[in-house]
Structure formats: structure tokens, C-alpha cells
Design a protein that fits this description.
Layout (H helix, E strand, L loop, with lengths): L1 H16 L10 E11 L5 E3 L5 H15 L5 E3 L5 E5 L10 E5 L3 E5 L2 H14 L14 E10 L5 E7 L7 H13 L4 E5 L1 E2 L2 E2 L8 H4 L3 E2 L21 E2 L4 H13 L3 E8 L4 H6 L27 H17 L4 E5 L6 H4 L2 H9 L5 H18 L3 E5 L12 E4 L7 H11 L4 E3 L28 H5 L10 H4 L2 E8 L7 H8 L2 H8 L9 H18 L9
Helix pairs in contact: 2-3, 4-6, 8-11
Bound molecules: acetamide (ACM).
The site of acetamide has 4 residues, from loops.
């Protein structure tokens, strides 16, 4: 007995000094004296129906590492208590967490309760992220937290077109994202190099478009003239059942999946499957080299109908308000040199092929709006005039570059903007100056501190215009990330910096403190089996 008391006193004395290492840092946190312990009999209670799924999910998330099947209990009595409260000052995603003799998490929404649960997991020792039982004492320090995010769009983009990612790995990626309180997965599902989503009306999109014979070896820059290929077939796709499962799994973790069907460029895999969608009548293959393809959809009414048919099935699968239609890097050479497409341009009263692209995008905008959805596209969609309801994803970063002016004007004209700037948020760039010491990447250099320093608000906007900025996301373009391990290496820790900058007000960010907390986050990744890049000391 005496031994037991000594141990618990010791425990509270040591835990009182260890500041919780939370990523992202909560907006308000007070550390209190003491700690409590989770044991096999600790009950998780839910005071109302909205809180029940969060309590159930937390019990499941704690099971692997603790080995405990924690009892669930309707009501307000338990070691951990979830409660929906009508506190409007917490917004759509905020929560309060108090831990002392027990842990109480209150929030006006299920999303807020879920974020409270993720904070609670981070208050536990890092081993809690293990899927296998470990012999750890599961202490929770006493704290008082009140926490709300800065931005409503906190995202990561994932390209599965260049390289396929198996379903189980997408689910793991969603788990990692949601533990950092991201709420949006922008899923880039189609590319020149592979079509990854089953469309019932057009089976050849996956029968043909999901597979390539071979992939270029090494960096495209060194291979453009005389490429070497690996001779290894690559491919894969998600069935509609797979997608329903992934969407539901993400929704349980408060993540909205925004699907992208990139058009009218980046469509070579679709044109390989259905050559009548192209401009030249010549057959093309699913692309096996990187870089921008000249192959582009023709803008015939029949092709517009094909895109609407695809989007119809996409909307059935994805409840997201926003549907991403790409619009980036659409080379217009094949349009320019086609007498038929020049004729179409004149018939439609369009000045140039930028206006033709805008016409095309406007057909999609009208169609999505008719179906109660909203269009979002890369910033090029604004080059020939922006459809009224469209939101813009700004990627061509840095003030002074084309994309920046477009994003600024779009915000001033009242369009919503998501910041995906390649100056600070392209996680396919190198993480070290010494590129030879790193895995092959697309180029450029984007270290962790540069990501952390980023403020998504574009300079020179009024307060009302700045309100149009929904948030920001990190890009994982996968030409040089063939495996899930390589995706994790490029995503983490940079996505941790992003998670914090989209959550915490700019004036509260502190890079030194972030790095201290990242030491613990790395231990969490170790426990979870996430292949992050270690931060140099
Ligand atoms: C892009 O990087 N092409 C959006």
C-alpha cells in the first residue's frame, strides 16, 4: 500500500513538470498539478447521442496499445466523459478538455468532441499510438484546455495517379492526418499516368486507364531525351465499394474527402481508354514518363457529357460540398492546331483558347451547381474568366507570380480561396540542402522551418477579402514517391508544421517550442509505424 502511494506521488511529481507536447498546440492551455491514470476498468461515458460515436472510436483507438477493452457507458459518469454542449463561442470545431480526477471533453459538435479525443491521445504517453500492447503506465497530466482552429480548411493533398496507394495505406494516412486535426483530404484520383476510380458507365477507364506498362527510371530532367524505363507494369484502382469504405472511414475521423478529376489536361489515361475524347484521333498510351503531357481532352459537347457522367458517379460516392475539377497545366497546342476546335471556338464566340478552357470549366460549374455542389480548381481556371460560384486553389505561389495575382483578384471578387502555394506547401520538394543525401525528389528545397513560417493570408487583402481564404493544404505529388513509406517520409514532419499553422493564430506560433514538442511527436510516429523524416538536432 505504502509502495503504491509513493509510486503515485512520484508519478504526479514528475508529470507536473513535463509540459504536454501537443501538435497542433491548443489555443489555450493551463497545466494543473497532478495526473490521473487509465486502467483496464476505466469507463468512457457519453452524455448524449452525438457523443457516442466519438466515445466508441476513442475506445477503439486506445485498445491496441493498452490491450484494454474500456467499458462504454451512457451518462456522465466515467474516467473519460464526452458531452455535447451548446457553447457557440467554440465554433464548429472547438472543444474544451479538463483533466483532473477524470477527463471531461465538451464541444458543441461531434467534430469538436473528436478533436478533444485526439488531444487526449496526445496527453497519454507516445506508446498509445502502437497497435500492439505495451507495458506502459497510462498517465494523463492534469490540464485545462480550450481550443478552436484558425482555419476551416486544413488539408493534405494526395496524388494516387502517378503511383497507386493500396486502400489500407490510404486508411492509415487518414488516421495519421486526423490525429493532427486535419479535416480535408484532397484526393487526386486521375492523371496522365493512371486513372484510379471505378466509373461504371466507362469501364475501360480502369480496365485500360489504370495500368501502364512501364515507368521512367530516375529524374525526368536527366531522362527527357533518351528515357530509360523499368519495364515493370504499374497500376491499380479503387472500386466504388473501396471508395465508399474510405469515405466513411474518413468521415468517422472528421475528414472530408474532396475528390479531384483533373480536366481538360492530365487526361491521357482516359484518352488511352477512349481515344474519341482526344484531339488528334491518334491512339495514345497511359503515360509512363513524368512532366506535362500535350495530350488534352477535346472540348466537343460529347466530351463535356462524358465529364458530366463521370462527375455524376463521383458525386454519388463523395458527399463533399466541393468537387475538384483540376484545370491545371492544360496545354492548348492541340486545340490551337485543330481546325475543328478553332471552328468550335468561333461558334461559341470565344476569343482564344484560354476562354475555351474557361468555357469548359463553366460547363462543369453549372453542372455541379445544378447538383447542389461547388466547383474548386487550380488557379489556372481563372485565366479566361472565373465561373461565378467557383473556388480557387492557389498553387503558383509567391507574391508577384501569376497565381498570386489571380488568387488576390479572385478573393477581391468574392471567390473562396484555398492556399496550396508551391512556395511553402509542396511536400514533394527536398527536405535538405544536400539533395544527394535525400531520396530522389522533384527539385527545390522546402525545409521544415520554412513551412512553419508560412501565413496563408495573402498580403494586401482587406479583412473582408481575407475572410475568403478558407485555409491551406500541403501537396503530395507522387512522381518520386512510389511507395507509402516514401509518402510518409515526405509528408512528415512538414505536415505537422502545417497542422499547427492552420490551427493556431499566427501570433501564437513559436518554432522553438514546436521543435521541443516534435521530439515527442516523433516518438508517436515511431509507435504508429509512420516512416517520418527525423528532425536534425
Ligand atoms: C500543380 O502542381 N500542377 C497544381
Amino acid at each position: 500500500m505504502i509502495k503504491h502511494i509513493t509510486l503515485s506521488l512520484l508519478l504526479s511529481a514528475t508529470t507536473a513538470f513535463a509540459a504536454p507536447a501537443l501538435i497542433p498546440q491548443p489555443t489555450e492551455i493551463n497545466q494543473l498539478q497532478g495526473a490521473l491514470e487509465l486502467s483496464s476498468g476505466s469507463t468512457i461515458a457519453y452524455a448524449d447521442a452525438d457523443a457516442k460515436p466519438v466515445a466508441e472510436l476513442l475506445a477503439q483507438q486506445l485498445r491496441g496499445a493498452t490491450g484494454y477493452t474500456l467499458p462504454l457507458n451512457a451518462g456522465s459518469t466515467g474516467r473519460i466523459v464526452f458531452k455535447t454542449s451548446a457553447d457557440s463561442t467554440l465554433g464548429a470545431e472547438g472543444y474544451e478538455l479538463t483533466s483532473k480526477d477524470s477527463v471531461t471533453i465538451t464541444a458543441p459538435t461531434t467534430a469538436g468532441l473528436f478533436y478533444g479525443a485526439q488531444t487526449l491521445r496526445q496527453l497519454l504517453p507516445p506508446e498509445i499510438y502502437s497497435s500492439e500492447p505495451t507495458s506502459t503506465t497510462w498517465t494523463i497530466p492534469a490540464v485545462d484546455i480550450r481550443d478552436t482552429p484558425r482555419f476551416a480548411w486544413r488539408g493534405l493533398h494526395l496524388d494516387v495517379g502517378r503511383h497507386f496507394m493500396p486502400k489500407e495505406d490510404v486508411l492509415k494516412f487518414i488516421d495519421t492526418m486526423s490525429s493532427l486535426k486535419f479535416n480535408t483530404l484532397h484526393w487526386h484520383l486521375t492523371e496522365d499516368q493512371g486513372w484510379r476510380i471505378e466509373i461504371k458507365k466507362y469501364p475501360k477507364l480502369t480496365e485500360i486507364g489504370a495500368w501502364r506498362d512501364s515507368t521512367v527510371i530516375g529524374h525526368i530532367r536527366d531522362n527527357r531525351k533518351k528515357p530509360n524505363y523499368d519495364g515493370v507494369p504499374h497500376g491499380g484502382f479503387y472500386t466504388q465499394d473501396d471508395i465508399r469504405e474510405i469515405v466513411a472511414y474518413a468521415a468517422d475521423r472528421q475528414i472530408t474527402i474532396v475528390p479531384e478529376i483533373d480536366m481538360p489536361g492530365h487526361m491521357q489515361a482516359a484518352i488511352a481508354a477512349y481515344p474519341e475524347l482526344g484531339c488528334t484521333g491518334e491512339p495514345v498510351e497511359v503515360r509512363k514518363i513524368w512532366g506535362i503531357s500535350q495530350t488534352i481532352l477535346n472540348p466537343e459537347d460529347s466530351t463535356v457529357q462524358f465529364c458530366k457522367d463521370v462527375l455524376t458517379e463521383v458525386m454519388e460516392l463523395f458527399p463533399s460540398e466541393f468537387i475538384h475539377i483540376g484545370g491545371d497545366e492544360a496545354k492548348k497546342n492541340q486545340w490551337e492546331s485543330s481546325p475543328r476546335i478553332q471552328e468550335l471556338r468561333e461558334q461559341r464566340g470565344l476569343k482564344d483558347m484560354h476562354e475555351m478552357q474557361s468555357w469548359f470549366i463553366k460547363q462543369m460549374d453549372d453542372f455541379l451547381v445544378e447538383n447542389g455542389r461547388r466547383l474548386i480548381g487550380w488557379d489556372e481556371i481563372a485565366e479566361g474568366g472565373l465561373a461565378q460560384n467557383a473556388a480557387v486553389m492557389w498553387w503558383r505561389g509567391k507574391a508577384g507570380r501569376a497565381g498570386a495575382a489571380i488568387a488576390k483578384k479572385a478573393a477581391q471578387d468574392g471567390h473562396d480561396i484555398v492556399i496550396a502555394s508551391n512556395s511553402h506547401l509542396y511536400f514533394d520538394y527536398y527536405q535538405a540542402k544536400d539533395k544527394k543525401a535525400e531520396p530522389l525528389a522533384i527539385g527545390n528545397y522546402l525545409p521544415l522551418d520554412k513551412v512553419y513560417s508560412f501565413d496563408p493570408i495573402i498580403e494586401g487583402l482587406t479583412e473582408a477579402e481575407a475572410e475568403r481564404i478558407l485555409g491551406a493544404q500541403g501537396q503530395l505529388w507522387r512522381e518520386y514517391m512510389p511507395t507509402t513509406e516514401s509518402v510518409e517520409y515526405m509528408a512528415f514532419p512538414r505536415a505537422c508544421a502545417l497542422a499547427e499553422l492552420v490551427w493556431l493564430p499566427e501570433e501564437q506560433k513559436n518554432y522553438t517550442h514546436f521543435l521541443e514538442r516534435m521530439a515527442v511527436q516523433q516518438a508517436r510516429f515511431d509507435a504508429a509505424g509512420v516512416n517520418y523524416r527525423k528532425i536534425e538536432q
